[in-house]
UniProtKB/TrEMBL annotation, chain A:
Name of this protein: Myotubularin-related protein 9-like
InterPro entries: Myotubularin (IPR030564), Myotubularin-like_Pase_dom (IPR010569), PH-GRAM_MTMR6-9 (IPR048994), PH-like_dom_sf (IPR011993), Prot-tyrosine_phosphatase-like (IPR029021)
SUPFAM superfamilies according to UniProt: (Phosphotyrosine protein) phosphatases II (SSF52799), PH domain-like (SSF50729)
Transmembrane segments: none
Lineage of the species this protein comes from: Eukaryota, Metazoa, Chordata, Craniata, Vertebrata
From TrEMBL, chain B:
Entry protein name: Myotubularin
Residues covered by the Tyrosine specific protein phosphatases domain: 364-410
PANTHER family: MYOTUBULARIN, MYOTUBULARIN-RELATED
Organism: Gouania willdenowi
Binding-site list for substrate: N333, I334, C394, S395, D396, G397, W398, D399, R400
Length: 538, 630
């Protein structure tokens, strides 16, 4: 592939960069296949701006006879301006940015070119696998098994090759179940609650259709999930009305008559476009510069972002309650089972399982519940809040998850082992990254594009000693207890570290947090480590 | 109207208190009666010991009046049966043993603003007969009793009398209690010492005792700092032109650039547009001291209010003040603030308005008012730190003015961000300068609808809280201190927030007859410390006063709601305590290292030499110099 055909002007001198938190600077702008670089002449060393073109969500240009201004709006919500001398140069640069920032081909993306010096591609990709999870939970091997029915992705294109299913069902039955579930997403185990041996399953909706089709194997599978217990819950992330309507288009829900031991609970969760529009409104409100008592709170409310968080957290709380408090197994699905389903199963696991609250545990959870489970990152994160492009499959579900985790972090400052800067980092990486982790829509696509052999893994990188320290919560105190979030509107707060991150005040708070972190680690080192005095003496 | 506590529920008293001979119940109206035994004799029963343990060290002066069966109509758990216990200090309720979850109430009588009878002897419906209690601290309580036999009369009369002692010719509780603390909090603020700390007097500013007997201005402190060249006669002439004689005096001086914050009341311009050359000259003297072309006068009020004040003889500085610029800060008056907080209470208590929470919150305008106060203070601080002296006033100069000067000083002077410095700031800018605590809070006064009441001080503490949120390492104290201060703003257990001004306090021997809140605070200071405090003496803090960066102080305004999570309070507090201990240990080690290494280790040589003053501040400073990254 040749990027150079899109780059008519690679270098421009005398460009003025106006970006938040910095004074305007004059220097040289450079466009490469994947980056926008800016360095001012005085400063040696690292460039002042090194931006992945992929990070650019929208551009606006304003031209005059002799120069032009390009406003660049990034997916990380930063907005900056470039004043470029010469109309032609400016148009060329704008054209390059517009084209290169939304290249469609996965294999042309930067992660395939990113080669940091200190790591090689031979390292094992990723942190976990269904096999590993299964190996760790020996106590339920009598009822569950590892199936590789999907080894060539033919049964369910969005599932990983191996999944955990009830032992009584053979692979042939699974194939039948897959035909009865949207996207072939037959119910699989995603969480095993050690305390009471209850499980969380997730799937796509059953394809009952208008004429109430049934599937014996599907009923059998769910019956097998229950084992000796005689009751389970199905949490449907749609309202019961929506679920009814879905039957008209071939979807549906588990009827009482066919699944007598299962009780359905409907919780209407917004997804898709509604969520994307909510994000757009919120970001607009956050960027509103007018100071006329700016009706900020009303705007925040109107964006509905916080109410989406409330719904997500309370539905996840409901799920956790079913499993942890009431001792029942739960199946979660909406329609496709690739968005809200994953959102609440993830949150419920963080609420219940202390292991998911550690840095490694959390990343492993994300890998299992979002990457392996087939959340279509490529589609969902193609654009963010600024894009004028016609929206197709964009939806900030993953961002909503990170925000929900941030709310937990805020409500339980001691209970999570990772810091909130990890959430911020993940929010960036999901939209534009040096790493291959969030590329593609599912495991199969990653396999096709050889993502796991030709790119580096973000999660591995985050766990390297050099990075790791930065993402640990200095106040962390592990607790075995479930952390039940409060979902009262007063308990939920705007994630200012993300949404207002380009305001100086938030930077100050971030610096103060860093300082606190340094303090705690310093105290700990000197007090706990007596060798320190030796080194000082020496 | 003697209460006969044993008439009713005498059995239960015996059961509660063990041998009744240990206890001589104090009778109403005679404070000299023997107090309830010693605390140890009363611990015979768990329930009571829970209650009495609250009273702790000042138990000997608590008079136990009444305990009886009652139903608390809890907004969160419904009607709860239990026992109410009333002393001359508090109302205490605990649900019966068989009620789950346990419901407890602990209300200092000082926090009560209104007691009303609800329903009558013939009212129908369950729990329709009882008492309604409105509190000053963002909650209301409702109790139901049996309809027979005037069962609420004793409790109503007790509450009415002891919640509003001043309306009944009784002393406030602070005058009754005999608490003892290791430290005397009244000594925390010595005006002369504070002036000396600021570098006063100097060649431009002198200290005057013109108000020593409070006959110059009865609402001002007894020592004042005024321009060196203004003679006492000048001051007297200026006083005639300033509302209530509250002349412009110095609150704070910038050590390097010598710019000052001066506070006063409005000039008495009136409808006829009176002038006073002495006042004009006086302000110009203040300007000249800093060789700036303009003196900035911040009038805290909205422009229209300032104009309207002319009708009642007040006003603002007009064009005749040639070298001054007048800036209106648009902060509303005490009545607007009172109504705003009332609206806030309506949407958070008992149940939180959920469906349109944010727009409801917006419609109370509370955060907007907080924003205006903060942004006013920022403007003051900004002027001063750039070398311009400022004058701050509102109408009388004891509400908005106090908010603005004290917040600006908090931004400018890191000393006020320490635990003790903050106490000095409150003592100085609020208490000594005559913020009318008695009128604003209505201590011991039954007149709940008094138009003089207003949550101005609460609003100030809210602003401080907003600052601590924005600068998590800049304050030596933590949120618990702010909450404690607001608790005792109402409790009347300490003398600190009693009376309207210094002269009234002296008249009532406040300092000798009551205990200071700072005695309590400084005797257990560790629970009020922020483990992450790292002092930076030169730093001016500019908080962001934008709605986007202000939060509702949920852990104060919605603290009575059990459904709101307050950050898992106890484990966090525990962790902070551990961290404080860790920090102390760290500092100790560091000090040892410094001692042993003082000759050999060059890497520590730039740390300041330890001095003998407060050990925490010294050592934390060492710490900062060594490790603060910026």
């Amino acid at each position: 592939m040749e990027f150079s055909e899109h780059i008519k002007t690679a270098n421009v001198e005398n460009v003025v960069l106006r970006q938040p938190l910095h004074p305007p600077a004059r220097g040289t702008l450079c466009v490469t296949g994947h980056h926008l670089l800016f360095s001012d002449r005085e400063e040696r060393g690292s460039p002042q701006l090194l931006l992945l073109l992929r990070n650019i969500d929208a551009t606006e240009k304003r031209m005059s006879a002799s120069s032009g201004t390009i406003t660049i709006k990034c997916k990380d919500l930063r907005v900056f301006q470039l004043d470029i001398p010469g109309m032609e140069q400016c148009l060329n640069i704008a054209h390059s940015i517009e084209t290169l920032s939304c290249l469609g081909h996965v294999s042309e993306m930067y992660p395939f070119f990113y080669r940091p010096v200190d790591v090689n591609l031979q390292e094992q990709w990723g942190l976990s696998s269904p096999e590993k999870l299964f190996g760790q939970t020996k106590e339920f091997h009598d009822r569950w098994r590892l199936s590789s029915v999907n080894r060539d992705y033919s049964v369910c294109p969005s599932y990983p090759p191996t999944v955990i299913v009830p032992k009584v069902l053979d692979d042939e039955s699974l194939k039948k179940v897959a035909k009865f579930r949207q996207g072939g997403r037959f119910p699989v185990l995603c969480y095993f609650h050690r305390k009471n041996a209850m499980v969380i399953m997730r799937s796509g909706q059953p394809l009952t259709g208008a004429n109430r089709r049934r599937c014996k194997e599907d009923e059998l599978l769910l019956q097998a999930v229950l084992g000796d217990s005689n009751k389970g819950f199905i949490i449907d992330t749609r309202s019961s009305q929506q679920a009814q309507q879905a039957r008209m288009t071939g979807g549906g829900f588990e009827s009482k008559s066919s699944y007598s031991c299962w009780k359905r609970l409907h919780r209407h969760m917004e997804k898709g476009r509604a969520l994307q529009e909510s994000l757009i409104k919120l970001v607009e409100a956050c960027r509103d510069e007018s100071h006329n008592m700016d009706r900020w709170l009303s705007k925040l409310e109107n964006s509905k972002w916080l109410s989406h968080i409330q719904t997500a957290l309370s539905t996840a709380g409901l799920l956790a309650e079913c499993v942890e408090r009431d001792g029942h197994s739960v199946l979660v699905h909406g329609s496709e089972g690739t968005d809200c389903t994953l959102l609440i199963s993830t949150l419920a696991q963080i609420i219940m399982d202390p292991h998911c609250r550690t840095l490694e545990g959390f990343l492993t959870l994300l890998e299992r519940e979002w990457l392996q489970a087939g959340h279509p990152f490529q589609e969902r994160c193609a654009h963010s809040a600024y894009s004028h492009a016609h929206l197709q499959h964009e939806s900030p579900v993953f961002l909503l998850l990170l925000d929900c985790v941030h709310q937990l972090w805020h409500q339980f400052p001691l209970a999570l082992g990772f810091s909130d800067s990890l959430l911020l980092r993940l929010a960036n990486e999901a939209y534009a990254s040096n790493y291959g982790t969030f590329l593609c829509n599912n495991d199969q696509e990653r396999c096709t594009h050889e993502v796991k052999t030709r790119t580096h893994c973000l999660f591995k990188a985050l766990l390297k000693p050099s990075e790791r320290d930065h993402y640990l919560n200095p106040l962390y105190e592990p607790t075995e207890l479930a952390i039940w979030p409060s979902v009262q509107p007063q308990s939920l707060q705007l994630w200012t570290e993300f949404f207002l991150r380009w305001e100086p005040q938030i930077q100050h708070i971030e610096e103060a947090k860093k300082e606190i972190k340094n303090m705690i680690s310093h105290w700990g080192k000197l007090v706990l480590d007596d060798s320190c005095s030796v080194s000082l003496n020496g | 109207m003697l209460l006969q506590p044993r008439e009713r529920g005498g059995d239960c008293e015996q059961q509660l208190l063990g041998s009744p001979s240990n206890i001589i119940l104090a009778l109403i109206g005679s404070f000299c009666s023997v107090a309830v035994g010693s605390s140890s004799t009363m611990m015979s029963n768990n329930e009571l010991s829970v209650c009495w343990s609250f009273f702790g060290e000042y138990c000997t002066s608590v008079f136990f009046f009444l305990d009886k069966d009652i139903i608390y109509i809890c907004p969160f758990n419904g009607a709860v049966k239990g026992k109410v216990l009333i002393t001359n200090f508090r109302l205490y309720f605990k649900s019966s043993y068989n009620v789950s979850p346990t419901v407890m109430l602990d209300v200092p009588l000082g926090a009560i603003s209104r007691v009303e009878k609800m329903g009558g002897a013939s009212s129908r419906g369950e729990n329709s007969y009882g008492l309604d209690i409105t509190c000053k601290d963002m909650r209301n309580l409702r109790f139901a009793l049996k309809q027979e036999g005037h069962s609420r009369r004793d409790i109503f009369e007790l509450l009415f009398k002891y919640a509003f002692p001043l309306s009944h010719g009784l002393p406030l509780f602070a005058y009754v209690t005999q608490e003892k603390y290791a430290e005397n909090g009244w000594k925390i603020f010595k005006p002369m010492e504070e002036f000396r700390r600021q570098g006063l007097p100097n060649n431009k500013w002198r200290i005057t005792f013109i108000n020593e007997k409070y006959d110059f201005c009865d609402t001002y402190p007894h020592v004042l700092a005024v321009p060196f060249e203004s003679k006492d006669e000048d001051l007297r002439r200026v006083a005639t032109f300033r509302s209530r004689g509250r002349i412009p005096v110095l609150s704070w001086i910038h050590r390097e650039n010598q710019a000052v914050i001066v506070r006063c009341s409005q000039p008495l311009v009136g409808m006829s547009g009176k002038r006073n050359r002495d006042d004009e000259r006086y302000l110009d003297v203040i300007r000249e001291m800093n060789h700036t072309t303009k003196l900035t006068i911040f009038d805290a009020r909205p422009n229209v209010n300032a104009v309207a004040n002319k009708a009642t003889g007040g006003g603002y500085e007009g064009d005749e003040y040639q070298n001054a610029e007048l800036v209106f800060l648009d902060i509303q008056n005490i009545h607007v603030m009172r109504e705003s907080l009332k609206k806030l209470k309506d949407i958070v208590y008992p149940n939180v308005e959920e469906s349109h929470w944010l727009s409801s919150l917006e419609s109370t305008h509370w955060l907007e008012h907080v924003k205006l106060v903060l942004s006013g203070a920022i403007q003051v601080a900004d002027k001063v730190s750039s070398g311009n002296s400022v004058v701050v006033h509102c109408s009388d100069g004891w509400d908005r003015t106090a908010q603005l000067t004290s917040l600006a000083m908090l931004m400018l002077d890191s000393h006020y961000r320490t635990l003790r410095g903050f106490q000095v700031l409150i003592e100085k800018e609020w208490i000594s300068f005559g913020h009318k605590f008695a009128s604003r809070i209505g201590h011991g006064d039954k007149n709940h609808a008094d138009q003089d009441r207003s949550p101005i001080f609460v609003q100030f503490i809210d602003c401080v809280w907003q600052m601590t949120k924005q600068f998590p390492t800049a304050f030596e104290f933590n949120e618990s201190l702010l909450l404690e201060i607001l608790n005792h703003l109402y409790s009347c257990r300490f003398g600190t927030f009693l009376y309207n001004c210094e002269s009234a306090r002296d008249l009532h021997d406040l300092r000798s007859k009551t205990v200071s809140l700072w005695s309590l605070v400084n005797s257990k200071s560790e629970i009020y410390l922020n483990p992450f405090y790292s002092p930076e003496s030169g730093r001016v803090l500019y908080p962001v006063a934008s709605m986007r960066h202000l939060e509702l102080w949920v852990s104060y305004y919605i603290r009575w709601n059990p459904r709101i999570r307050h950050k898992q309070q106890s484990p966090v507090e525990q962790r902070y305590k551990e961290l404080l201990a860790l920090r102390d240990e760290y500092l100790k080690k560091l000090e040892q290292l410094q001692l042993t290494d003082s000759f050999t280790s060059p890497c520590l040589s730039h740390s300041p030499t330890p001095n003998s003053s407060s050990p925490t501040s010294t050592s934390s400073q060492q710490f900062t110099h060594l490790h603060t990254p910026f």
